[in-house]
Amino acid sequence: MTDYPRVAFRTVDYHQLVRRACFVCELLAGSPAYLHHVVHRDDLAVVFLSRFPSLWGHVLVAPVAHHEHVIGDFDLDSYLALQRRVHAVGSALTAAVRCERLYVLSLGSQQGNRHVHWHLVPLPPGTPYDEQQIAALGADRGYLDVPDGAMADLANAIARRIVVR
User: Fold this and answer.
1) Biggest alpha carbon distance in the chain?
2) Residue 105 pLDDT > 80
């Protein structure tokens, strides 16, 4: 099911949340203010559904260890090990959610969301071109208001398809 209403994105509230603490480290510590539906976790990475999904199936992949720079904080082997997880999650996600294209990007800032993470966002088939790419991800569109049960079902559907090689 992907036909959920959109909720206005409250930028001020979001900035307060992500500047208060590292959202990935808080998630890993079990902090109630930073709960997400965890899809997968191993010794290197945690995979979880976005609390503010721009599109159905929006997933994040982050290293368990706190790193802030997408290239500079990793040696090649560590980086490639994380990219194996990104690939495995992308494969599982596209098997679980119909999509025309999978967007993979790293967002964050030294002013908030400092912990390195990759967004994997499936673009639904048939999305008009003017609603794709940056337009599909813009905060001005708001985010999907998905019930907790549907999020749990989605997390399970992706999790059972993840194979890290």
Assistant:
1) 42
2) yes
Give which of 43, 25, 51, 113 is closest to 82, Cα–Cα: 43
Helix/strand/coil for 21: coil
Task: Give the position of tokens 């999790």.
Answer: 159
Predicted confidence band at 3 (pLDDT cuts at 50, 70, 90)?
A: confident
Q: In the predicted model, what is the mean pLDDT of residues 10-34?
A: 83
Three-state secondary-structure class, residue 10: coil
pTM greater than the 0.70 cutoff: yes
| Tokens matching residue 63 | 């290293």
Nearest CA-CA partner of 120 in 161, 164, 59: 59
Cα→Cα distances 87→118, 122, 134, 158, Å: 11, 13, 22, 13
- Cα-Cα end-to-end distance for the chain: 30
Cα–Cα dist 65/44, whole Å: 7
- Round to whole Å and give the CA distance between 163 and 150: 23
What percentage of the chain's residues is helix, strand, coil (to nearest 5)? 40, 20, 40
Q: Is 62 helix (H, G, I), strand (E, B) or coil?
A: strand
Confidence of residue 139 (pLDDT cuts 50, 70, 90): confident
Q: How far is C-alpha 9 from the geometric centre of its chain's CA atoms?
A: 16
What pLDDT is attached to residue 106? Answer: 94
